[in-house]
C-alpha cells in the first residue's frame, strides 16, 4: 500500500497506469534494479568519450523514469541525450552532472515505493 505522501508525490504516475498501484510498485522494482547501473554506465560513457553510448544510455534511463516523472528532472535528460548525440562531451557531461543529484533523489523516491509494500 502506498503511503498518502507517496500517492500525492506520484499521483500523475498512478494516473498513467490507470490507477493500478500494484503495477506502479512492480515498475518501481524495475527502476530500483536498473537505474543505478544506467547512472553508472552514463558516467562511464562520458568519462570515456563514448557519446553515442551515452546518448543510448540516457535514453534508456529517461524511458525507465518517465512512468514516474515527466517533468524535472527527467526532462533534463533529453538535453543530456541531445548533447551526446551532437558529439558535445563537455556540454553533455555538465548537463548530466547538474541533473544527476535530482535523478538519484527521484530514483530513491521510486525505490521507496517497493519498500512500503
Structural description of this entry:
This protein has 117 residues and is an all-alpha fold. The protein has one domain: Four Helix Bundle (Hemerythrin (Met), subunit A) (Up-down Bundle), CATH 1.20.120. Helix content is 79%, strand content 0%. It is built from six helices and no strands. α3 packs antiparallel against α6. It is elongated and about 45 Å long. The mean pLDDT is 96.
Explain the layout of strands and helices.
Layout: H1 4-9, H2 11-16, H3 21-47, H4 51-65, H5 74-85, H6 89-115
Helix pairs in contact: 3-4, 3-6, 4-5, 5-6
Structural class: mainly alpha
CATH class category name? Mainly Alpha
Count of the domains = 1
Q: Work out the strand percent.
A: under 5%
Distance between the termini: 5 Å
State the helix count. Answer: 6
SSE order, as H and E?
A: HHHHHH
Report the principal-axis shape. Answer: elongated
Tell me how many strands there are.
0
> What profile does the largest beta sheet have?
none
CATH topology: Four Helix Bundle (Hemerythrin (Met), subunit A)
- Report the uncertain regions: none
- CATH architecture annotation name: Up-down Bundle
Rg (C-alpha, Å): 15 Å
Q: What do the pLDDT scores average to?
A: 96
Helix content: over 70%
InterPro entries: HPT_dom_sf (IPR036641)
Protein name: Hpt domain protein
